[in-house]
């Protein structure tokens, strides 16, 4: 059946450094030997962690995205990590007493610098810019070239600009892969509505204008908000094509009071409803991505439309199902306990009846879709 886990592990042991799964991350994982061999060859930003640490688990998707952006052949910085439950010598030498601990190692300085800020991507990249003394993370050239349609908002202008009128705003980071792919579409979309008096299409670079992004509690990129008279009306959760954006705007400009609208799931929902009675059968074949939720949960409500779009995206595939379980129903409580659901929403992936992974990263459509696809590629005779 191809390469076995034992064979794969043997290959990794023969490498100079142990790399994370290439489908998921470009992060470099060092052991005692490779840490000593490589730490002085380039500037390094290292996460010292423990696999059981909940804060480390939450940071891992962000750390992987940082590695995806910066771990290139010509990069002046290497994003790496060390498992302190295995590499105890390194962690002892580095005086690691809590997890995760993030340290910047410069080729020009003897002592590393400990990162003490908020563990989000803008804060991490700003820290690296400060340490390197230059703009390590530069604006994408394509973004700069097409920046002709969307209104550029900054910390100085966003308040007065947004306090009156209706705006559809993209909050982004230039290094974000999803943002880079969206940039041309967003500018074309903005040009299309440039003369429309009903709405202004705008954008904010959260790496340079953090005050504006903090004002709207931006936690991931890109985030697209419909804002009216300075207040956030709703977060856009749909697909990101020009037609999808146009339909969304036309719906919003149709005269309805969208601030009072509730999410209505159509009767023909592509999401499969599972209960204690049909759960085993429902997850028995192929991949099944299950949302365990509670109707009163705010995060669950926010995820609901995205989950529907995800279900629609995979509805034509026989070996992939998007499902949900309402854990507040008396008949489902034991099921949720058996699946070790301890918070809402909990997103678990099953393959042929076996629970194989939990999604703990961003709940944007792109990240959820990529999560399923990365596992789906491993299914035999099925292409996503």
TrEMBL record:
GO function terms (MF aspect): protein disulfide isomerase activity
InterPro entries in the cross-refs: PDI, PDI_thioredoxin-like_dom, Thioredoxin-like_sf, Thioredoxin_CS, Thioredoxin_domain
Native species: Apolygus lucorum (Small green plant bug)
Thioredoxin domain boundaries: 3-109, 115-254, 263-377
A GO biological-process term: protein folding
Listed name of the protein: Thioredoxin domain-containing protein
Highest taxon of the lineage: Eukaryota
NCBIfam families assigned to the protein according to its UniProt record, in alphabetical order: pdi_dom
PANTHER family: PROTEIN DISULFIDE-ISOMERASE C17H9.14C-RELATED, THIOREDOXIN DOMAIN-CONTAINING PROTEIN 5
Family: Belongs to the protein disulfide isomerase family.
Keywords noted in UniProt: Redox-active center, Repeat, Signal
Pfam families reported in the protein's UniProt record: Thioredoxin
Gene Ontology CC: endoplasmic reticulum
């Amino acid at each position: 059946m191809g390469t076995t886990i034992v064979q794969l592990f043997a290959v990794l042991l023969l490498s100079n450094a142990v790399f994370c799964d290439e489908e998921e991350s470009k992060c470099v994982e060092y052991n005692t030997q490779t840490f000593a061999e490589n730490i002085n060859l380039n500037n390094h930003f290292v996460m010292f962690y423990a696999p059981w640490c909940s804060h480390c688990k939450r940071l891992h998707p962000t750390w992987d995205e940082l590695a995806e952006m910066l771990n290139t052949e010509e990069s002046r910085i290497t994003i790496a990590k060390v498992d302190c439950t295995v590499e105890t010598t390194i962690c002892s030498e580095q005086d690691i007493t809590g997890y995760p601990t993030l340290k910047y190692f410069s080729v020009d300085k003897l002592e590393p610098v400990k990162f003490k800020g908020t563990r989000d991507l803008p804060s991490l990249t700003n820290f690296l810019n400060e340490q390197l003394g230059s703009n390590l993370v530069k604006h994408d050239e394509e973004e700069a070239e097409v920046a002709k349609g969307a209104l550029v908002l900054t910390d100085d202008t966003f308040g007065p600009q947004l306090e009156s009128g209706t705006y559809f705003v993209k909050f982004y980071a230039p290094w974000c892969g999803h943002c880079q792919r969206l940039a041309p579409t967003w500018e074309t979309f903005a040009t299309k509505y440039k003369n429309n008096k009903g709405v202004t299409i705008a954008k904010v670079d959260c790496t340079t204008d953090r005050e504006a992004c903090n004002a709207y509690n931006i936690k991931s990129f890109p985030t697209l908000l419909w804002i009216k008279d300075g207040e956030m009306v709703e977060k856009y959760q749909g697909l990101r094509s020009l037609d999808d954006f146009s339909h969304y705007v036309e719906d919003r400009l149709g005269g309805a009071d969208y601030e009072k609208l509730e999410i209505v799931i159509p009767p023909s929902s592509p999401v499969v409803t599972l209960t204690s009675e049909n759960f085993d059968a429902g997850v028995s074949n192929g991949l099944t991505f299950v949302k365990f939720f509670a109707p009163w949960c705010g995060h669950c409500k926010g995820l609901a439309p995205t989950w529907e779009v995800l279900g629609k995206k995979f509805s034509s595939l026989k070996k992939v199902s998007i499902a949900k379980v309402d854990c507040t129903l008396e008949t489902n409580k034991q099921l949720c306990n058996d699946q070790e659901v301890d918070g809402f929403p909990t997103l678990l992936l099953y393959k042929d009846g076996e629970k194989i992974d939990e999604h703990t990263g961003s709940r944007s459509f792109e990240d959820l879709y990529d999560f399923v696809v990365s596992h789906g590629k491993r299914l035999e005779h099925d292409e996503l």
